[in-house]
Amino acid sequence: MSRFCGMQLMVYSAADRSTAALSPANLLSQLAESRASGCLTILSQDVSWIFYLHNGNLFYGITSIDPFDCLERNLKAFSAEIPNIDRPIRQQIRSLFEKQEGSNSTAVYQALSWLRSEGFINQFQTDLLIKNLIKETLESFLSLQTASHRFLALDPSLPILTEFTVFPLLDETFQRLREWSGLSEKVYSPFQSPYLFSQSTSNNKFSPEKLQKLGNLLKGYSLRHLAALIHQDEIKLMRSLDPYIQEGVVFFREPQPPFDKLPPLLRSDLISGNTAIAGPVDTSNNLTSSPSATARPVKIVCIDDSPIILSELRRFLDEDRFEVITIIDSVKALMEVMRIEPDLILLDVGMPNVDGYKFCKVVRNHPNFKTTPIIMVTGNTGLIDRAKAKMSGATDYLTKPFTQEGLLNIVNQHLHKQF
């Protein structure tokens, strides 16, 4: 097992009354490797981090810093994927589960369980929400310098809505922290608030119209809240602001309470170059025996209007075996497909402007793509939908929610036929 580099976390176990020096990542890794089940609570100053584990897998994570804000923000961010949960439903969730006293951290999980049981979210949407809550919690947890912890038994009646392997989540979070540290040195927290210093026209690099538009956007929200409101990835949002930061047009305020209690993001020099922890290797879908692993990587184009879905597809497809290209705009996608000439296309059905059926027909009419596998990815399960996919020229049909195993099986199946 390779070691994670980072600050040492002084941990205190309520179980054995002992203390030890561990990195935050190694603490979770040891619980994962021992297939532990329980509630891990990390305490630092006035903040707690809570992780639920079952047989070494994570199935929930959140901090004590306004957990219902965290839930509501993610519901807004995923509004395209979870259209059933509008503002009245979000208000109902707060009225039903938010507590005036006691732990709202547990109440958020109860709210998620209620949303699932009442049919407001399906399994795929549940996975998206909970995974994002865990990763956001890990982000600040891995940045801790000192803390104590306790590990207690789980309530046996607690429903397990989903489970995630610890090691990939740690890798993804460390990669995200590296991306954060590569941004402006003025940013050390996603809860800092960008603001326009001046809309003066004395800066010739930006037009008055651009500055006015930017001023209307930056209304005192933190980076994280603003990204959720405009359905934008936080890193991309920061990169789009970078020219204004460099010119001294945009500055950052300190995180507002209670978010000022969270630690600064871990710096890149404290993250090891290789943050992968060796875990059990699943070889059931190993494609090394197929032609896809020979002369060049297989090019797979994933087209979807949801950045969350594209992120999941990229994560599920092993990039050592595949070259994965994600495209979010269906209008621009056609030219990109012609340029890339992929070996396989994963295509969402329900896209604005050009839906998957129309897109598939256009691609199929091109002589270069008569035999290219095109797999429709959709939540529609009816026979009519399958017939429409077939008539448009789709090779196969993958229904949401899907597992990594299901995705790799269908991809492998058609790549073998292709080659």
From TrEMBL:
Q: Which InterPro entries match?
A: Bact_response_regulator (IPR050595), CheY-like_superfamily (IPR011006), PatA-like_N (IPR025497), Sig_transdc_resp-reg_PatA (IPR024186), Sig_transdc_resp-reg_receiver (IPR001789)
> Which residue positions does 4-aspartylphosphate occur at?
348
The record's section on Gene3D superfamilies has: 3.40.50.2300
Q: Write down the Pfam families for this protein, in alphabetical order.
A: DUF4388, Response_reg
The residues covered by the Response regulatory domain are 299-415
> Sorted alphabetically, which keywords does the UniProt record give?
Phosphoprotein
Q: Which GO terms describe its biological process?
A: phosphorelay signal transduction system
Q: Check the record and name the PANTHER family matching this protein.
A: RESPONSE REGULATORY DOMAIN-CONTAINING PROTEIN (PTHR44591:SF3), STRESS RESPONSE REGULATOR PROTEIN 1 (PTHR44591)
Indicate what this protein is called per its UniProt record.
Two-component response regulator rre36 homolog
This protein's gene is called pixG
